[in-house]
Amino acid sequence: MSNNVSMTRDVINSFDTRHQLRQVRRFVCRLTLVVIIGAVGETTMRAQGPFINPVCKESCALTDLACMTREQTCQLKLDAYYTYMAQLGAGVTLHRLPSLYVELLQKHYSGALTEVRFGFSDRQPGTKATTDCSVIYFSSGAPSNFVNKLKDGLLSTDQEFSLLLHELRHFSQCKIIGGRDSYAKMWFGHFTVSFLQQGTLDPKALHDGMPMEKDAISAASDFLKKTATIRDANGILVRPFTLTMFAGSTVIGSTLTAFADLPVPLIASVQGGSEPIRYLWSIKGPTDVFSKSMNGGRSDQKEIDWTPEREGTYSIALLVMQFNSGLVPVEKVINVKVLPRTKIVPATIN
Asked: Residue 343: pLDDT band by 50, 70, 90 thresholds?
């Protein structure tokens, strides 16, 4: 068994660029058959060296060959995992997630997303991406130009976001279980479970049948629904809308005092979202039953001048939204007390 792993390392180290992908496919098949089946069935293995990773340690008695075999099998799997990931990451340029993605997606994940690095590596057979704890390698099987779009914060389709959210779930799995060594051990453990359950060597069936994959698929589907409320009409991830209202240069709270026949300049300041933003103003006067538009149905005005015609209590509302997107609209309602002009006193804004 140790000779097989050693030979695998030698083969990987001698790959030339033209034949890497073909050889990696063979490597993974051999990994499946030799390490998973052979190592699990081996019962006469002896200690191969003094080092056993702490995640594989079982504190075996010197006479407990079955225990030592489990330790060695575990160590061989870790060695194979690290050998594969080393060739996958060789020469790869890694990038950080855009800060906006970290800000908006962090609440869905365990572990700090600032630790995540990603890059392009096509030395992985039949998969769109591989996550090695905090490092994600995307292949040519991912959507077109995926790494550059992610680097620039320009993912825009459900397919693209599903892939990212899926791989970030694997990052969380690694953090939850305790780090890279434990993650590698779990990966092989789940691979073995999937192999026994599926009874097939179909790589996709084995991959999708792993418990950690089922978890990532489910989580990505759930998170994708939640991101719909922070993606604009082009599908780009953006901050949610926030709205501040001004009367001239003064911030308005929930109430305003004004005077009949004197204009009040109302200004909306919107943060988050993206253009085109729609501004829907409405007003309900002292004798009105229903609200009516303040700007003739126009939706592009973030500033209007309103002049109350008579004294009384008014209700002014502004709804800010973007058509054809999942962005959550934001509304502000201001209760305005209009005094007769003959009783002018200094304006108060609360």
From this structure: low
**CA-wise closest residue to 276 among 324, 308, 240:** 324
The strand pair at 135-138 and 117-120 is best described as parallel
Alpha carbon distance 288, 301 (integer Å)? 23
Can you tell me the distance from the alpha carbon of 56 to that of 68, in angstroms, rounded to the nearest whole number?
10
Q: What is the DSSP letter of 272?
A: S
User: 65 near 12, Cβ under 8 Å?
Assistant: no
Is the bond preceding residue 211 a cis peptide, omega within 30 degrees?
no
pLDDT digits (tens, 9 = 90+) for 89-144: 999 999 999 999 999 999 999 999 999 999 999 988 778 999 999 999 999 999 99
Q: Is 315:336 a contact under the CB 8 Å cutoff? A: yes
Q: Parallel, antiparallel, or unpaired for β 312-321 and 330-339?
A: antiparallel
In this prediction, residues 31-55 reach a mean pLDDT of 50
Sheet of 242-247, strands arranged across = 250-251, 242-247, 264-271, 303-306
SS3 289: coil
User: How many residues does the structure list for the chain?
Assistant: 350
| pLDDT of 147 higher than 50 | yes
- Retrieve residue 343's tokens: 């009783």
Q: Higher pLDDT residue, 188 or 198?
A: 188
Q: Over the stretch 295-327, which tens digit does the pLDDT of each residue have?
A: 877 888 999 999 998 999 999 999 999 999 999
Dist. CA 133–CA 323, nearest whole Å = 39
Domains of the chain from N-terminus onward: 1-90 (no CATH), 92-238 (no CATH), 242-343 (2.60.40.10)
Q: Which residues contact 336 (CB under 8 A, 6 or more apart)?
A: 255, 256, 257, 258, 264, 308, 313, 314, 315, 316
Taking CA atoms, 49 is separated from 1, 74, 75, 119, 184, in Å, by: 13, 13, 10, 35, 20
Exposed, middle or buried, 211 (CB in 10 Å: 0-12/13-18/19+)?
Answer: middle
**Cα(65)–Cα(309) distance, integer angstroms:** 95
